[in-house]
Design goal:
Layout: E1 23-26, H1 30-41, E2 46-49, E3 63-65, H2 66-74, H3 78-82, E4 87-95, E5 101-105, H4 108-112, E6 117-119, H5 122-139, E7 143-145, E8 149-156, E9 162-169, E10 173-177, E11 180-183, H6 190-198, E12 210-219, E13 228-234, E14 243-250, E15 253-261, H7 262-265, H8 275-285, E16 297-298, E17 304-309, E18 325-326, E19 329-331, H9 347-360, H10 372-400, H11 403-415, H12 417-428, H13 430-433, H14 439-447
Parallel strand pairs: 1-2, 1-11, 2-7, 4-13, 11-19
Antiparallel strand pairs: 3-6, 4-5, 4-6, 8-9, 9-10, 12-15, 12-16, 12-17, 13-14, 14-15, 18-19
Helix pairs in contact: 1-5, 1-9, 2-9, 9-10, 11-12, 11-14
């Protein structure tokens, strides 16, 4: 199966004004495509809306982890990935501020089953997810639109506030209703803004829980694998409490990027405030990296910035990480603020939330509208599934801000195979991750 992600995706007939559906999905990225695909596989009639036109790029670190691959396989996309250029991830290399490094292997069984992880440009991955979703949606009688934006999220207040549909603008302006609207439009998703700000008066953006990021593609970087190997996360002085990454995505090409919590970034001064300038400083002047990039070239036009809404717990909030559903609607992925606050990984959480959301909707029972009690159940189950992991990652994020502690930890890990094995387990197991923020466990492995 060969997939050419450079050609347009045919999406069929446009919906006519007033045409209604079982589910409307706003956003055709991995989360939205997964939600539409899961719903269509069950027989629901779906309207899938994407504001861009394929093929389109998406700024990201480009890693697709094991959590994602389980859903990707269910949706029939894994074979498509394997038929396109990609990089198989077998481990993660961490470096500390003083230049020490250690490589933690991913679980051997997962690597052998090709389920540990991949890295490939999002222009490829998103294309395949949207293409598969389009096939499934059209086969179940739904509609798919590209180059179309949501200009209004419809809602009523009788008997309670409830989202009822959307007005979209592409070649024409049309209005569509459904018992359920899925918000999957990223960190500025119009459905999320309607739920959080417009109808509930809460603040959607909190810079303590948002990350600014910048990415470029480079060729000719030294000491990276061609087809498989480790991805690199560097916790260097200028970047902490974020990190700088080097992720091979196919033979000869790497994704190079930098991310930092926005509230921390604003505390920096001068050059450090610009992630683009900071990245070029690391590439051209940092003693650990300048030789590796001495003969490398940046892919023209590949430098792009974006923002990530972290799923870290908010103090004083009854609903974590923030309000993400109400009668008539549920948000998934970045629209629900589900990005891992340590690793920056968001695709796996988007796919998990998509499957959970679709699983709670019943087109027969909820034909008059997705009820408020089910929206509340979604938020409880979502945090139940992801809360422990996101909370652990937030605590780890705080740990790596302590330079001396990070230096000691990497130094010990490089010398102790047993500690490396424990970290491998932590990469695969939520329960094992709890060790990483246990004061006793840290004391045993760093101070002794």
């Amino acid at each position: 199966m060969t997939i050419d992600w450079t050609v347009p995706i045919e999406t069929g007939e446009l919906p006519v004004d007033g045409e209604n559906f079982d589910i409307i999905v706003v956003g055709g990225g991995p989360g939205g495509s997964a939600a539409a695909a899961y719903a269509a596989m069950r027989g629901d009639r779906v309207l899938l809306i994407e504001k861009e036109v394929w093929p389109r790029d998406k700024t990201c670190g480009d890693a697709v982890g094991g959590k994602s691959l389980r859903h990707v396989k269910e949706l029939g996309v894994k074979e498509m990935i394997e038929a396109t250029p990609h990089f198989r991830v077998t481990g993660m290399m961490f470096s500390s501020p003083n230049g020490q490094n250690v490589t933690i292997a991913l679980p051997k069984d997962d690597v052998e089953r090709k389920e540990a992880g991949y890295a490939l440009p999002r222009i490829q991955f998103d294309y395949m997810m949207f293409k598969r979703a389009t096939e499934l949606v059209l086969s179940s009688g739904g509609k798919v639109v590209q180059g179309t934006k949501v200009i209004d999220v419809l809602h009523d207040s009788v008997p309670i506030s409830r989202i009822t549909g959307v007005t979209i603008e592409g070649d024409s302006t049309t209005t569509h209703c459904a018992p359920l609207v899925i918000g999957a439009g990223g960190y500025r998703c119009p459905v999320a803004q309607t739920i959080v700000e417009d109808l509930n008066g809460e603040i959607m953006r909190d810079d303590d829980h948002y990350c600014g990021a910048y990415r470029e593609y480079w060729t000719g970087v030294k000491d990276v694998g061609d087809e498989e190997g480790a991805i690199e996360l560097h916790f260097v002085d200028d970047v902490i409490p974020g990190y700088w990454w080097i992720f091979p995505v196919q033979k000869g090409m790497v994704n190079v990027g930098i991310g930092m919590v926005i509230s921390e970034q604003r505390k920096q001064k001068g050059m450090r405030k610009s992630l683009k300038k900071l990245q070029h400083h690391l590439i051209n002047e940092h003693p650990l990296f300048k030789e590796r990039f001495a003969e490398a070239k940046m892919v023209e036009g590949s430098g792009k910035g974006w923002q990530l809404p972290f799923g870290s717990p908010r103090k004083g909030k009854a609903i974590q990480p923030r309000l993400s559903a109400m009668a008539g609607a549920m948000c998934i992925g970045d629209a629900a603020s589900l990005v891992d606050p340590f690793s920056g990984e968001g695709i796996g959480n988007a796919l998990l939330s998509a499957k959970l959301a679709i699983g709670l909707f019943d087109s027969s029972k909820h034909k008059d509208g997705f009820p408020q009690e089910m929206a509340e159940q979604y938020m409880v189950e979502l945090w139940g599934a992801l809360g422990p992991e996101l909370t652990n990652s937030y605590k780890i994020q705080k740990i790596v801000r302590r330079r001396r502690l990070m230096n000691l930890f990497v130094k010990k890990a490089a010398k102790r195979p047993a500690l490396q094995d424990a970290l491998t387990d932590a990469l695969a197991s939520k329960d094992a991750q709890k060790k990483l923020h246990s004061p006793l466990w840290l004391a045993r492995n760093i101070l002794l």
